[in-house]
What does this fold into?
Amino acid sequence: MMFPINWIGRKDCDVKDKLCKDSNGNMVACSTTTGRFDAMPSADLTTREVVQYFADNFGFNTQETVAIMGGHNLGFASRTNSGYDGIGGWHLDPTALNRGYYAALNLTKWNLTFVNNSDIPMMHDKYQWNLNNVRNASAPPSFMLNADMAIVRDMEGNLNSSTGFVSCQFACPGCKNPNPPVCPYANLTFSYAVEYKLNETKFLYDFRDAFNKMLTRGYDTTYCSAGCPLE
It folds into this structure.
């Protein structure tokens, strides 16, 4: 599987009369070496908000949104950088692009966890979802953001966007009257997450296409219809 990159940089960052940041984070006039300043999307989004964000910013449909979220197969999170304690990664194998992200999302033992960041200057406290490592109990747990969980659970009306606290639980197998209640399935996106869990090849091809669509946004790619095929 190849991910050809024929364009470098976001075309829509080159906008006049917009504020940019230099290497020190200071607001400056835009130039060839400073990009437009855009706030990062919140990690505390509902299913509807995740889908809307990618539709507004990249022209993605729902399936492309679920596919690009699979980029969280890779990497970790550090409290000092983001406030999230994710040194265990989003799933058990955070160094490989595979179906593991979706397989993890379809497990049931995720627990909402409070992350106290009072020891880090200018860092707010967070909430994240943790899952203990079933292979090694002493290893750091896998983690997910609310925006990740939104792919399989609809937290509309149960997510405090200011604090990240969720007032419904991820799952409660065998419970008749769980308290707090279980978050309902995310009807918009759940079926795609299950599809990618079961079909890794399908995920890899769909991720490739969504990734390239993201990279080429704002560019005229018509000349590449024959000369730059996606292999």
